[in-house]
Design brief:
This protein is of the alpha/beta class. It has a single domain, classed as Alkaline Phosphatase, subunit A (3-Layer(aba) Sandwich). It is built from twelve helices and eight strands. An eight-stranded mixed β-sheet has the order 4-3-5-1-6-7-2-8, sandwiched between helices. The longest helix has 20 residues. The two termini are 36 Å apart.
Length: 313
C-alpha cells in the first residue's frame, strides 16, 4: 500500500512538471519570476548524466529518484545543451566555451585547452576543487579512455592549468574518493562528479551487451539514489548546492543546438518545488557555481549568462 501511494504521488507530481514545461501549470502553484539571489554556499556539486532529452527523463516513472528531487527542489523546464557531441558541453559547463574550442573535432579534440576555466577561477579565489570520475584508473590520471571511463566526459583532463601542474592534476580522483572525503570532512569547495558510461545512461548497464533506453535510464537513476542521495543527506550538504544535469539531448534533438535536457537544482537554500521557465544553458551552471562560491572570475560565456538566481529565496 505504501508503494502504491508513493507511485500515485510521483505520477501526480510529474504530471504537474510536464504541464509546467508546456506552460499549462497554474500560476498559483508555479513561480516563473526571474527574481532571487544566488546564495553563498560552502560546497558546489555538479553531476553530469548523458545523452537523453527532457521528455525522456522528466515524468519517466523508471526514474523515481531523480524525478523526486525535481518535485522536491528545483527543475529548469527550459534548459538546453549547447552542442552535439559531449565534449563541447562539458567545456561549456566548466569553461564557458565549447564549440569554438573543439570545432569540427568534437569529442576527438586532443587538447590542451588554454582558455580561462573553472580551475583557474576557483584557484584565483582561493577555493579548492576535485573531479570525481567513476572508474578512473588512478589519482591524477590524464590518459585516454579506460574501460567505462571516457576522457571526453572529464574536461579537467584537458585543461592546461591541470595537465601542466602536478599539484592540480592530483585533484582528478576516482569517484570512490568522495565517500572518504565526506567521512574525513575533506570535501573540496567545488566537486565535479562523473559517473562512468554504464551508470550515466550513455551505454548499456554493466554486463548487458544490448539494452533499451529505459534500462539505461533506470540504472542511472539507481546509481544516483545509491551514490548521490548519501551526499545530499550528509552533514556536508547542509549549506551546499548540487546541480544534476544531462550533457546533451538525444542526437535527433537539436533545439538550441544541444537539445532540451533536464537540469535539477538541489539545495537547502533553494525554493521548494520550484519550476523555472527561464531559458538556460550550461554556461549558467558555471556562473551559478562560481557565484555561489564567491569567485569573481566568470570564464567565457558565463560572464554574460543568467545566473539561475530565480531558484533561490
Amino acid at each position: 500500500m505504501k508503494s502504491y501511494f508513493w507511485s500515485l504521488f510521483l505520477v501526480l507530481g510529474l504530471t504537474f512538471l510536464e504541464s509546467a514545461c508546456g506552460g499549462g501549470a497554474s500560476s498559483s502553484t508555479m513561480t516563473t519570476s526571474t527574481g532571487g539571489t544566488v546564495p553563498a554556499v560552502t560546497h558546489v556539486f555538479v553531476v553530469v548524466e548523458e545523452n537523453h532529452s527532457y521528455p525522456e527523463v522528466v515524468g519517466n516513472s523508471g526514474m523515481p529518484y531523480l524525478n523526486g528531487l525535481a518535485v522536491s527542489y528545483g527543475l529548469a523546464t527550459q534548459y538546453y545543451a549547447n552542442a552535439h557531441p559531449s565534449l563541447p558541453n562539458y567545456f561549456e559547463l566548466t569553461a564557458g566555451d565549447g564549440t569554438s574550442v573543439t570545432g569540427a573535432l568534437g569529442d576527438l579534440y586532443p587538447g590542451p585547452m588554454t582558455q580561462d576555466n573553472v580551475v583557474r577561477a576557483l584557484t584565483g579565489a582561493g577555493k579548492t576543487w576535485k573531479s570525481y570520475a567513476e572508474s578512473l584508473p588512478a589519482i591524477g590520471y590524464l590518459g585516454g579512455d579506460s574501460g567505462p571511463y571516457l576522457k571526453q566526459h572529464n574536461p579537467f583532463a584537458y585543461f592546461l592549468d591541470v595537465i601542466s601542474n602536478s599539484t592540480q592534476a592530483v585533484n582528478i580522483v576516482p569517484f570512490s574518493q568522495l565517500a572518504t572525503d565526506i567521512a574525513n570532512n575533506n570535501v573540496p569547495d567545488y566537486a565535479f562528479i562523473i559517473p562512468n558510461v554504464n551508470d550515466d545512461a550513455h551505454d548499456c548497464p554493466a554486463g548487458m551487451s544490448t539494452c533499451t533506453d529505459a534500462q539505461k535510464l533506470a540504472v542511472a537513476d539507481q546509481w544516483l539514489r545509491s551514490n548521490i542521495d548519501p551526499v545530499i543527506k550528509s552533514q556536508v550538504f547542509q549549506d551546499s548546492l548540487m546541480v544534476i544535469v544531462f550533457d546533451e539531448g538525444d542526437l535527433t534533438d537539436v533545439a538550441n543546438f544541444g537539445g532540451h535536457v533536464a537540469a535539477i537544482i538541489v539545495s537547502p537554500k533553494s525554493k521548494t518545488g520550484y519550476q523555472s521557465t527561464t531559458l538556460y544553458q550550461h554556461q549558467s551552471v558555471l556562473r551559478l557555481s562560481l557565484k555561489a562560491l564567491g569567485a569573481t572570475d566568470l570564464p567565457g560565456d558565463a560572464a554574460s549568462a543568467p545566473d539561475m538566481g530565480d531558484f533561490f529565496q
